[in-house]
Amino acid sequence: MTSSQPLDLRLPTPGCYNDPERAGLDAKSVFDGMTEHLFFTLGKLAPTASRHDLYMALSYAVRDRLMMRYLATTEAMRAHPQKSVAYLSAEFLIGPQLNNNLLNLGIQQEAEAALRNFGIESLQQILDVEEEPGLGNGGLGRLAACYMESLASLKIPATGYGIRYEFGIFDQLIRDGWQVEITDKWLKGGWPWELPQPDEACFVGFGGRTESYIDDKGSYRSRWIPAEHAIGIPHDVPVLGYRVNICDRLRLWRADATESFDFYAFNIGDYYGAVEEKVGSETLSKVLYPNDGTDEGRRLRLKQQHFFVSCSLQDMLRSLDNRGLPVEDFPKYWTVQLNDTHPAIAVAELMRLLIDDRHMDWDKAWDITSRSVAYTNHTLLPEALEKWDLNLFSSLLPRHLELIYEINRRFLQQLRLRYPGNDAIQRKLSIIDEDGSKAVRMAHLATIGAHHVNGVAALHSDLVKTDLLPEFAELWPEKFTNVTNGVTPRRWVALANPELSTLLNEHIGEDWISNMENLRKLEERQNDQGFLEHWGNTKLSVKRKLASYIHRNTGVLVDPSTLFDVQVKRIHEYKRQHLNVLQVITQYLRIKNGQADGMAPRTVIFGGKAAPGYYMAKLIIRFINGIAETVNADPDMDGRLRVVFLPDYNVKLGEQVYPASDLSEQISTAGKEASGTGNMKFAMNGALTIGTLDGANVEIRELVGAENFFLFGKTVEEINDLKRSGYNPGAFINAMPELQEALRLIEMGHFSNGDSELFRPLLDNLTGHDPFFVMADFADYLRAQEAVSLAWTDRMHWNRMSLLNTARTGFFSSDRSIGEYCENIWNVGPLNVDITCDVR
């Protein structure tokens, strides 16, 4: 460049984000973006690029287009401040990002055309390369991901706050029928979707002591002097809405040490000591859900929770400072949603930041906190309601314990005025559990500090008020509400089931994807024989793909024309995978005994992970695989019964399983499942449900119609009656010869290569205590399965029921759920973002 050609150093016009060279959505622009990133970002030439290189290049090119919208959203929020949602969650099971972003941008075909220039004929070849982010485990994390996508699609400004786990919970292998956990190294190939922001790091303290002092205004204060610190480095992941300009963010915190290297320790030969602080600090964001079966594991979990909550609240307060907004207006600009009890320490931490750092008085700080925080309860299981040992809590968070004591003192004073002389209710509602070893009840802290407490299904929310927290609900009835869970139709129908999506687009238009109530139009086709046949053929096409996957990954050949009977979810006794297995054994026995008339040919599919320290759940996996080995090796079962366990169940696999399922197993003990979201994904994709009146099953049945749902099992009231009368599983076993024969086969070692002791703990549990009432529900479950077989014989009728399940599940869109949060809990509205400008 000569002196007569000066560099153009002009900055982009404020508010202008429409750069056609970096933001074009046509195939040529995408190809040019890929080529640029191959060369400049990855250091590769097209002829030598691997599929992973092409995946990275395409992802970076797509991220460029997200950045236009992300920065426009940031600028719009700066120019016109409004309330934003802060969604705090220990998990975000976001799944693969590339195809989701291509769909939301509307450029899947353009990306495929661009890839053809690199010799790639199918977009799927590149999508298969993508690693699944190990940022979550199950329904809690997947719900958070759906909610973030819906927030962006509804144009609600939001930040999801969590932890950037270096390793996910684990990858699951099956060896000799047992679950084997191996490290989930999901970051090993790089992750193109995150943007580190080291200049926005936060400091977090742990341990140490507190000191009291009098401030310059004569007020009593407490000063926390932590013994150790960590630094939280934010990594931002853009979250794009469906065909909108707004792009929210997921801000994930990575832990770093305040001093990474001790040069003196290194010089005197203490090589481990030189990096000890770095290793200790970085452990905070190392792995999702460390085993809490040890003191160190519990300590690490509590440190993780405080770490990401403290970073997140500091970040929110800093955002107000950066925009010149007063901290007193925190509730005006932030609404803080606690996704279960994992982030419940936020109540105490926000109080600490306001009182200790911002020098507010107690009443003002409590007013801000209680107007900002809301709490979602996700479980009725006592063991899942977090309680922290008082000694552990005081050693790790001494200042927070002081604040919790004061919150509790003031709350108990309210109780004394409301219930004078009632010491029992004070003990029951106190944040500090005085029974046995003293502990901090995090659900009580969240309930007292929140302006709203919601359950996640109508039945669950009722049980929260009547069984879990009845006295709190009586004290503050206005706090308690319901928001039934939902799932995003973009991922779980449009992406996961393109065959069904194409059928819907052709017959009811494309608007269903952002307005799921439009699926009701399908009801007009419920008596159209030609359409119903087309519906069935679409399902069969998807089942063939899953059958191919099963054969490649397990070696089991399955017939796509059989009934695909599916239970995929976390392995847990209350979800009752063992109830399903017992009915499989009964089906097996009927075939062996020549009593299989009218039985539908089935492929029974299981998938899910057991927590590493949960022995009974791991034994259930071994039980499933023992049955599968026996059944699949028996020639009498050919064409009649197959059993499959899909290893390492995750979002990517779920995208194949949900669309291909005929029957959805939602068979948890009534009153145990808060909501479920898998049940919604199955129904949206046309699977019929066999289930109990538990969680969102109740609402699914009401919406799809009782005649299109296979109901069985004891109700919550009937379960409670059995408990009160002294439940005896033996009485139910003695009434069912088939059940006795099934249990006898297990006891003999028929499904364990003659080892009669292998499944003894499981048998003793079922025939003795039976805590989840498997025996009580077995006979009715078998009756419902017979009704399933009968319905399957009339395929046109089955297709009609399948169609009506899809048509009537629009209510379960996460867009509806988020709309209810916005209106009834958060009081937030949409943000308008413009990414166009006059570039002349």
UniProtKB/TrEMBL annotation:
Q: What class of enzyme is it?
A: transferase
Please verify whether the record's keywords include Glycosyltransferase.
yes
Pfam name, any one = Phosphorylase
Record SUPFAM superfamilies: UDP-Glycosyltransferase/glycogen phosphorylase (SSF53756)
CDD domains documented for this protein: GT35_Glycogen_Phosphorylase
| Family affiliation | Belongs to the glycogen phosphorylase family.
Write down what this protein is called: Alpha-1,4 glucan phosphorylase
